[in-house]
Amino acid sequence: MNSSQRSPMLRMSRGYATASTDALQVICGTMPLDLEAKYRYYKGLIKARTAFALGNVQYNGGDETSKATIDLENELMDIWQSRWNSSIKERTIYEYFSRVRNRVEKIWIELDHFTVQFLTGHGDFKSKLMKLGLKEEDTCACGEIETAAHVLRYCKIYEEERSQAEERLNQAGVSTGVNNPKEIVLSREAFIIFKGLCKEILTKKEAQRRNAEQE
User: Fold this and answer.
1) For 40-59, how does the pLDDT look when each residue is reduced to its tens digit (9 = 90+)?
2) pTM above 0.90, yes or no
3) Beta strands in 31-177 (DSSP E)
4) How does DSSP classify residue 25?
5) Is residue 99 a contact partner of residue 83, using CB atoms and an 8 Å limit?
6) 145 phi and psi angles, rounded to 5 deg
7) Of the candidates 15, 194, 197, 27, the residue with the CA atom closest to the CA atom of residue 98
8) At what angle do helices 21-28 and 6-13 cross, to 10 degrees?
């Protein structure tokens, strides 16, 4: 059932098809489809004041409906969180959003093709492309292994762009620069700065590649 969410979530996130369904659900802030189906079913029972039991939720049909609905939402979020904690896929996005509720509540997040590559680790990074059989080597132009984290936080090629972004992040209250993923997505202002940096880096990376091919 959850796999049917992939196509719309890929369009929503503008990410690569290699990203897992688990990651796409979190990055889009979209509850797994099977849990969404349960939510609608049990919410219908609450509306009809029909008793049911689901995990820690015990609804006797006479309880106040708004509280029962909140309890239901919390129970399903806990189930989703448990799945996310135990997932072995896409630990890159987990660094940014270890709590699914934190992502769902950030309704101001707007994704783009550049940012989602750093959030998922799937994109124009040789280490990932080599694992997919699309590159013969995994080293960055600077000589280090080219991962999303390396390009964003450490690569000297993008030191100027990173330094300027970190100065703006500091003004926005993020003193750790780009080194703490959770702080980058903590506020709308910080996330906008992060988005700008992602675009600057990948645009520069593409321009450098094209120049090298023309030489």
Assistant:
1) 999 999 999 999 999 999 99
2) no
3) 52-54, 57-59
4) H
5) no
6) -65, 130
7) 27
8) 50
